[in-house]
Amino acid sequence: MSEALPWTPELAATDRDKVWHPYAPMPSVVEPFPVVSADGVRIRLADGRELLDGMASWWSAIHGYRHPALDQAVRDQLDSMAHVMFGGLTHAPGVRLAERLTELAPAGLEHVFFADSGSVSVEVAIKMCLQYQRSQGHTSRTRLMTVRGGYHGDTFGAMAVTDPAGSMHQLWADVLPEHVFADRPPTVLTEEYAAHLAQLAAQHADSLAAIIVEPVVQGAGGMHFYDPEVLKLLRGICDEHGLLLVFDEIATGFGRTGELFAADHAGVSPDIMTVGKALTGGYMTLAAVLCTTRVAHGISSGEAPVLMHGPTFMANPLACAVAYASTGLLLDGAWRTQVAGIEKLLTTHLEPARELPGVADVRVLGAIGVIEMRQPTDMRTATKAAMDQGVWIRPFGTLLYVMPPYVTPEEDVERIAAALVAAARASAPASER
């Protein structure tokens, strides 16, 4: 096995001066921590420290790192081909993965369009909605309805259906298409909220193509959990007005919330669903858009009888092979026990944070644990407090949260929870400590 590239002062200088990291200035004012290897649920830094990964690499590495089955899938696929274009050609890894996804997905999602990232899959889903309505003769239906507090990605179509008020995309509010935003969905559905959704959809129905939401869990928009009954309500509203229902399951799919898909909490099937992140177990970038036969045939019978999209690395064979192996690991159902165990431990060990100064809320769902502060946290302070406990987290805004790999042992889940509580304690305003 080859050795990892050594981290040198020269690389550190180049990283600082040449590499633009996400949500950071150039040059960087905060040096990132160099990682030299990862194994199981731990990442090893260049200075020799080992950290439990409480983030599963932005929620994707659900099986941990260097999983034998996933490693082998990559090696085996490399023996035949790493990539080939999907336009005019096809290959077994892509076809097998598409079949697997339609078997796992909520009922009725029978067709798969591959993309190369979560944000791009949202762009494809939006394009599907608009092109479907156009193919049905509804040329005025050019907008979408969604809810406040959502997040769907960083590309322009995805930014447009992300809550523009106070979000990281507020900078672009004056150049993005204007969609229709309902209030953030409640933790318990009320008659007032149901009436609000129904009235808003009815008011704008003639201009709407679809409704898009993150089902049950709003991720980067606030780690907000809401009543699955809202999904049933949305399904009825869409059916009433001839709208498509889109579920963005990029963050919630493949077991994170305790169900295979968050839609399963409500027993609701959307017309279109996006998946990504955990699709490949965190090994490679890949996403997919699933849709019903009605949507696929509707688009294919329109004035432009093809879906006008085609990413260069669509259905990359290497990514499809490892995604097939990753989804295969979910078939035995062990993830249900693992996620339920994580949920129980996080619930128990995060609860003491509720009494800490500056804490607004503590909430857990599936393998997601959240401590919400009343004021925005200092990321460096919170991160250091967790790292001092041997745990990696990535806070944002008022939120301290973890989404560990499903395979994290009990004692490590407890350590992750303790580190999050320590981060909350360190993040409390000085006047309240």
From TrEMBL:
Functional pathway: Cofactor biosynthesis; biotin biosynthesis; 7,8-diaminononanoate from 8-amino-7-oxononanoate (SAM route): step 1/1
Marked site: Participates in the substrate recognition with KAPA and in a stacking interaction with the adenine ring of SAM: Y23
Keywords: Aminotransferase, Biotin biosynthesis, Cytoplasm, Pyridoxal phosphate, S-adenosyl-L-methionine, Transferase
Name of one Pfam family that matches: Aminotran_3
Superkingdom in the source lineage: Bacteria
Subunit note: Homodimer.
Binding site for substrate: W58, Y151, K277, G310, R394
GO molecular function terms noted in the UniProt entry: adenosylmethionine-8-amino-7-oxononanoate transaminase activity; pyridoxal phosphate binding
Location of the protein in the cell: Cytoplasm
Protein residues bound to pyridoxal 5'-phosphate: G118, S119, D248, P311, T312
Organism for this UniProt entry: Catenulispora acidiphila (strain DSM 44928 / JCM 14897 / NBRC 102108 / NRRL B-24433 / ID139908)
GO biological process: biotin biosynthetic process
Catalysed transformations (reactions): (8S)-8-amino-7-oxononanoate + S-adenosyl-L-methionine = S-adenosyl-4-methylsulfanyl-2-oxobutanoate + (7R,8S)-7,8-diammoniononanoate
EC numbers for this chain: 2.6.1.62
Family assignment from sequence similarity: Belongs to the class-III pyridoxal-phosphate-dependent aminotransferase family. BioA subfamily.
Name the UniProt record assigns to this protein: Adenosylmethionine-8-amino-7-oxononanoate aminotransferase
GO cellular component, one term: cytoplasm
Cofactor: pyridoxal 5'-phosphate
Entry coiled-coil feature ranges: none
Role noted for this protein: Catalyzes the transfer of the alpha-amino group from S-adenosyl-L-methionine (SAM) to 7-keto-8-aminopelargonic acid (KAPA) to form 7,8-diaminopelargonic acid (DAPA). It is the only aminotransferase known to utilize SAM as an amino donor.
Location of N6-(pyridoxal phosphate)lysine modifications: K277
